[in-house]
Design a protein that fits this description.
alpha/beta; Rossmann fold; seven-stranded parallel β-sheet; three-stranded antiparallel β-sheet; 7 helices; 10 strands; 31% helix; binds 2-amino-2-deoxy-6-O-phosphono-alpha-D-glucopyranose; allosteric enzyme; Glc/Gal-6P_isomerase
């Protein structure tokens, strides 16, 4: 695992966006796995700026989602599908056809999970998967004690994650209880994992991820098992390393 400490979130966004540009130069139709939450926004801004400045032709890039809420109506502004379309797909000038994600509105949620795992494999696998980290060490929505070999599946959010994500909703009660998430085993199949963590709130989770044992109680520690994992942290998030 490579750990890169940057001065601040903007520098982290810039560094990771540059890595994505280099990937797209090598492989114009790369499948980019994106994450939601506040942390990756500087990456998406930096990448869109580079694409607009024609640093790279991203017109053949493909985008895929890491996770999704279950039960939000189609088009809800906080469904991760809506967020990824708004924050990534549209700013890059891509068509919605270049984008895939699990169907959180499906009646058969388990079927939708299996279908998404198959779709990722049929698309040739994820070339670069961006990850954030929850304050409890979760990646995607793989909460503590998730199996390290898990596949895409339905999960129940912990109270802490629902509280952490309540800021995106009008009231905390609106945060769904259930989600679909790529499993840890699914995530580990991506060719390159890039986790960005910023701010002091993430310092404990980062220290456990990087310096603790590989353990399902800290799902992000599974990155230690990956042959090409990069953890980018600002100084605040690195403060307990
Ligand atoms: C959610 C997402 C994760 C993300 C986490 C942290 O739980 N499912 O993918 O990493 O939030 O979000 P933030 O970056 O806003 O702290």
């Amino acid at each position: 695992m490579e750990v890169v400490i940057v001065p601040d979130a903007a520098a982290g966004g810039e560094l990771i966006a540059e890595a994505m540009v280099e990937l797209l130069r090598r492989k114009p139709d790369a499948l980019l796995g994106v994450a939601t939450g506040s942390t990756p926004l500087p990456i998406y801004e930096a990448l869109a700026t580079k694409v607009r400045a024609k640093a790279v032709d991203a017109s053949r890039a493909r985008i895929c989602q890491l996770d999704e809420y279950v039960g939000l109506p189609a088009g809800h502004p906080e469904s991760y599908r809506s967020v990824v379309l708004r924050e990534v797909v549209e700013p890059l000038g891509l068509s919605p056809d270049s984008f895939m994600g699990p169907d959180g509105t499906a009646e058969d949620v388990r079927g939708a999970c299996a279908a998404y795992d198959r779709a990722l494999a049929e698309a040739g696998g994820v070339d670069l998967q961006l990850l954030g980290i929850g304050t409890d060490g979760h990646i995607g929505f793989n909460e503590p004690c998730s199996s390290l070999v898990s596949r895409t599946r339905i999960k129940t959010l912990t109270q802490q994650t629902r509280e952490d994500n309540a800021r995106f909703f009008d009231s905390p009660d609106e945060v769904p209880h259930h989600v679909i998430t790529q499993g840890i085993g699914t995530i580990l199949e991506a060719r390159h994992l890039v986790l960005l963590a910023t701010g002091e709130r993430k310092a404990d989770a980062v220290a456990q991820t990087v310096e603790g044992p590989v353990a399902s109680i800290v799902p992000a520690s599974a990155l230690q098992l990956h042959p090409h994992a990069t953890v980018v942290v600002d100084e605040a998030a690195a403060s307990k390393l």
